[in-house]
Structure formats: C-alpha cells, structure tokens
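Task card 7
Instruction: Convert sequence to structure tokens.
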Amino acid sequence: MKVTVAFFKGDNDLSDKLVKWWTNSKYSHCEMIIQDKWLSADPKRGVRLINLKPLKDNWDYVEVEVDEKNTPFVLSFISEQKGKKYDWKGIFFSQLFSFDLHSHNKFFCSELVMGVLQAFNASRAMGKKPHKFSPGDVFNLLNS
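Output:
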C-alpha cells in the first residue's frame, strides 16, 4: 500500500518564509494523504483528519510504500491524536534550538508525519526521532 506525503513550498505568510530560511529548505510544511483522508497538524487547528481536498500548485508529493497490515493500527493512532494541540515546545526546543525537547502528546507537521510513517513501519523512518525532522528533512529522507 502507498501513502503520499505532501510538501508545501509556497510563501503564503511570514512563517512559511521563516521556516524555509531556518531549515534551509524549499518546504515549510508537510501533510499526509492516507486512502481518501488528509492528515495535518498546524498551529491554528492542531491535529486533524479531513476528507481529501484539491490542492494548488504549491505542493510536491512523495509516495511511500507502507505495510498495509498496519493500517487499522495507524488509523486508530491517528484517531487518538485528532484534536491534539500543536507542539510549540518541539518547534522551539528541537527545531529552533537543538535541545531534543518536545511534548509527547502534541505534534507539529513533520513530527506527526514521521510518527505515522513509523506506525506504518516504513523502513526509512524507523529508529528516528520524529521531533528532530523538519519538512525538508522528511523530504530528503524519503528521497534518499
């Protein structure tokens, strides 16, 4: 089974520009498409799972082969995360500063994507610390 990771490369606001500059990447955000659902973590709405939406041209996509037998576990994991807040602690103390600190019950976008890839047992994501990955890091990992 394949899932798709979507990487945002637009410049909608100052935060997009800052993330891209700080991480030295063309990506400021990432999300995941699983079956017909769109998984996202953002500062305003936290973790959410919505119906697939049409996108503009500001996205790049990477398909990832995952273990289909883990789908019920992954969907249960995602269901438990819905509505959780954004991991500001992880953004500041794992991304901005390298202190390796984050909230264990909150997520930022690339942290959530890496966690779901690990739940799917995706080989490239295994053994990694999800909170240490920016959107650009995830893109590079999946394309290595």
